[in-house]
């Protein structure tokens, strides 16, 4: 009796054709068996009545290792991986006279079986199978004579089998020696730390081995060894993506500990490389998460906000060069422009001004009030905390990145619907703070409205300027020259020909209300520091100044005005607060330091302050210092380290005798200006006169009038 073994790699499109063929085979007295990759009772129930139908083992039944092999294999190879260790297939393939591939996905399986059982005919399709059966039925004696050449598997199979067994053994050894259990043995860890850094290992193998061993070491609880291995391997790796992937856990752990990782940018570059790969495949959706992760690393608060130094401040061009050179960075920087230039309002109607408000209005209140009261000006406020507006801002950064990488998005349509009619009404749109609302505003074409954004120091150290389409902004306002210099260096788009005009206008400050008399001559011995809620204020520097003074004269004390620094902000802040608290514990009991906490009456709190300090590592202007100077307190300004030594810094912003470099210099200045009541009061009057005549709102409001009310050609 002739036996036929058929293989189905996919559900047949025409089941009736298969059943007809099986009926023909039955009529010829042929025994037919069918191996399938799917449930035959569900997909081909009629065939189960005409032949013995067998479901090949599933990936789950074969175990995790073979299951992974099957998932990774191409569709044509998967049936063979399921069939090669199946006893049913082996038994019936050995007895089969005809091996039949019923579809393309079964071809490789039938070829493999034919190499092992060479006396059988191997065919593709039902019609060739019928011809092979008829041929055998016509001359059965011919096929009963064994041929020596067809006994046993072919040399190809023997070689392949030997190679497969060798590779399989090697894989088993590798998996065992790089697994979690093996990593509990110190000799094994020692071996792999050196193996991944050995010269001559191909890049693709080095990266795969290092990632697997690194993970196993972590799972085994040997994180130190895992980190040593990652650092050793990355020095030999050329791929930025692989290096970044390998060093990612180290960087993440160090950030969680409040440390600035040495390899922070290596991991960020790896994320950008992955994003670039997806962009080349025109898949911005998959690129976006990697860009966001790169942003999280490059602009992490540990790097720039929760320490007394910043790699971005040290070298803005160099630090951000990987972003600007990447395909992702270029996509983010693509200018989309506007259909029409901004137009100055026509004569005969009020100048319409739209102010974005609601999120942080600390510095814009006086500006809005002035123009609300001014004839010929009509003011609207777009309150960003209104229920109708808030959904547009939700998940804003992610939506911005998707939009800028793709060039369009549904969220842009939602912004247009929510804000478009306000922008269309306005002649001038003023957005204080270059953060989420400012960036989202540039998702839409502003029409003929003039768009003005004011950027403070916080945003300059964040991702927001890199998510803003500056080709849709007409003017950018900075509060100091050094902040403008830094931001232009960090954001090259601002220097582009199609970029906005830039201006330096100080904050609107009502300084006259701080000019309250200081009745006590002893006020000259009280140092004041306003604002402690940010580590950038660096109050420990003020304590160094105080200790230096009290070595000479114990009458000096420090008054801290404002909320305490919150240790919960980050591990780095927590460590700083612990050191600060330890120092305060020594000084507070004697009255050398007094903390007032937050107060709404800052002018009143300054009546007994004779010297006002600015101890910050970073400031765009420092309103608290200028408010203290307006009260008659003598200013002492640390040369803010983030900007010190540059063409513009605290030394250019303030009179040169106000600025010092060290706590010792600060103490010397304080001792000199407080040597007598007369000297102190004269220095205080001089400082108050300078700030009131230079930065009081009665003076600076004219600069805003020129910016907002005069045609752009007339602005500086």
Q: Fraction of residues in helices?
A: 40-55%
Reported by name, the CATH topology of the largest domain is Rossmann fold
> Sheet bearing the most strands, described?
6 strands, parallel
Task: Supply the number of structural domains.
Answer: 4
The helix/strand class is alpha/beta
| CATH level-four homologous superfamily name of the largest domain | Glycogen Phosphorylase B
Radius of gyration: 38 Å
Short recap of the structure:
By secondary structure, the chain is of the alpha/beta class.
Question: Secondary-structure blueprint of this entry?
Answer:
Layout: E1 3-8, H1 15-27, E2 31-36, H2 40-43, E3 52-55, H3 59-62, H4 64-72, H5 78-83, H6 87-95, E4 98-101, H7 107-116, E5 121-124, H8 126-138, H9 140-144, H10 155-177, H11 186-195, H12 203-219, H13 223-234, H14 240-256, H15 264-280, H16 284-298, H17 301-304, H18 311-314, H19 316-325, H20 327-332, E6 351-357, H21 365-372, E7 377-383, H22 390-393, H23 396-406, H24 410-425, E8 428-432, H25 436-441, E9 450-454, H26 457-460, E10 475-478, H27 481-490, E11 501-504, E12 526-530, H28 539-550, E13 557-561, H29 571-587, E14 593-597, H30 602-605, E15 611-614, H31 623-630, E16 634-638, H32 650-653, E17 659-660, H33 663-673, H34 677-695, H35 697-709
Parallel strand pairs: 1-2, 1-4, 2-3, 4-5, 6-7, 6-8, 8-9, 9-10, 10-11, 12-13, 12-15, 13-14, 15-16, 16-17
Could you characterize the architecture of this molecule?
The chain has 4 domains: 3-156, NAD(P)-binding Rossmann-like Domain (Rossmann fold), CATH 3.40.50.720; 163-331; 351-504, Glycogen Phosphorylase B (Rossmann fold); 514-695, Glycogen Phosphorylase B (Rossmann fold, 3-Layer(aba) Sandwich). The relative contact order is 0.06. The strands form 3 sheets. A 6-stranded parallel sheet has the order 7-6-8-9-10-11, sandwiched between helices. A 6-stranded parallel sheet has the order 14-13-12-15-16-17, sandwiched between helices. β16, α32 and β17 form a beta-alpha-beta unit. The radius of gyration is 38 Å and the shape is elongated. Helices cover 50% and strands 11% of the residues. By secondary structure, the chain is of the alpha/beta class.
């Amino acid at each position: 009796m002739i036996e036929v073994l058929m293989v189905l790699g996919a559900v047949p499109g025409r089941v009736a054709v298969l059943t007809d063929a099986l009926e023909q085979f039955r009529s010829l007295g042929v025994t037919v068996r069918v191996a399938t990759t799917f449930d035959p009772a569900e997909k081909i129930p009629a065939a189960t009545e005409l032949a013995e139908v067998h479901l090949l083992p599933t990936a789950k039944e074969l175990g995790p290792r073979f299951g992974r092999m099957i998932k990774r294999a191409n569709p044509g190879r998967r049936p063979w991986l399921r069939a090669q260790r199946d006893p049913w297939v082996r038994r019936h393939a050995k007895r089969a006279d005809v091996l039949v591939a019923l579809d393309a996905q079964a071809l490789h399986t039938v070829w493999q079986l034919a190499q092992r059982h060479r006396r059988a005919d191997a065919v593709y399709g039902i019609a060739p199978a019928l011809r092979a059966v008829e041929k055998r039925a016509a001359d059965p004696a011919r096929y009963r004579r064994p041929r020596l050449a067809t006994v046993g598997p072919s040399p190809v199979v023997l070689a392949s089998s030997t190679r497969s067994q060798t590779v399989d053994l090697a894989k088993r050894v590798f998996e065992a020696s790089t697994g979690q259990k093996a990593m509990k043995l110190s000799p094994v860890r020692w071996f792999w730390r050196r193996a991944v850094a050995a010269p001559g290992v191909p890049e693709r193998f080095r990266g795969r081995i290092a990632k697997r061993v690194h993970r196993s070491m972590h799972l085994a609880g040997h994180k130190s060894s895992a980190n040593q291995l990652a650092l050793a391997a990355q020095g030999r790796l050329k791929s930025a993506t692989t290096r970044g992937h390998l060093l990612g856990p180290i960087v993440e752990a160090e950030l969680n500990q409040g440390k600035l990782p040495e390899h922070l940018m290596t991991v960020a570059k790896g994320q950008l490389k992955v994003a670039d790969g997806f962009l080349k495949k025109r898949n911005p959706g998959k690129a976006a998460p990697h860009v966001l992760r790169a942003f999280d690393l490059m602009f992490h608060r540990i790097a720039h906000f929760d320490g007394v130094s910043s790699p971005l401040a040290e070298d803005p061009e160099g630090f951000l060069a990987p972003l600007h050179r990447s395909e992702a960075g270029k996509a983010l920087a693509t200018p989309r422009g506007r259909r029409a230039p901004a137009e100055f309002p026509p004569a005969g109607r009020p100048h319409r001004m739209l102010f974005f408000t609601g999120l942080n209005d600390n510095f814009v209140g006086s500006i809005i009030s002035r123009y609300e009261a001014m004839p010929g000006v009509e003011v609207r406020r777009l309150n960003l905390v209104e229920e109708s507006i808030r959904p547009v801002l939700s998940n804003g950064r992610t939506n911005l990145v998707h939009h800028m990488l793709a060039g369009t998005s549904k969220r842009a349509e939602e912004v247009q619907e929510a804000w478009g009619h306000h922008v269309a009404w306005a002649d001038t749109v003023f957005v204080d703070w270059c953060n989420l609302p400012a960036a989202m505003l540039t998702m839409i074409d502003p029409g003929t409205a003039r768009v003005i954004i004011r950027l403070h120091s916080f945003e300059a150290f964040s991702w927001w300027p890199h998510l803003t389409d500056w080709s849709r902004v007409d003017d950018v306002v900075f509060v100091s020259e050094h902040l403008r210099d830094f931001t232009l260096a960090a954001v090259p788009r601002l220097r582009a020909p199609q970029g906005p005009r830039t201006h330096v206008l100080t904050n609107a400050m009502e300084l006259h209300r701080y000019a309250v008399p200081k009745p006590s001559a002893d006020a000259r011995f009280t140092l004041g520091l306003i604002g402690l809620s940010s580590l950038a204020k660096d109050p420990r520097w003020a304590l160094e100044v105080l200790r230096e003074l009290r070595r000479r004269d114990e009458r000096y004390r420090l008054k801290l005005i404002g909320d305490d620094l919150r240790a919960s902000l980050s591990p780095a802040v927590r460590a700083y607060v612990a050191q600060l608290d330890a120092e305060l514990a020594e000084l507070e009991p004697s009255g050398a330091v007094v903390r007032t906490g937050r107060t709404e009456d800052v002018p009143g709190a300054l009546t007994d302050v004779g010297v006002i300090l600015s101890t910050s590592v970073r400031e765009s202007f420092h309103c608290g210092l200028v408010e203290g100077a307006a009260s008659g307190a003598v200013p002492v300004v640390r040369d803010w380290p983030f900007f010190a030594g540059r063409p513009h810094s605290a030394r250019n912003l303030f009179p040169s005798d106000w600025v010092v470099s060290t706590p010792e210099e600060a103490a010397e200045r304080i001792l000199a200006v407080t040597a007598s009541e007369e000297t102190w009061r004269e220095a205080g009057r001089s400082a108050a006169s300078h700030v009131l005549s230079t930065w009081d709102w009665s003076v600076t409001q004219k600069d805003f009038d020129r910016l907002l009310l005069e045609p752009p050609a007339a602005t500086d």
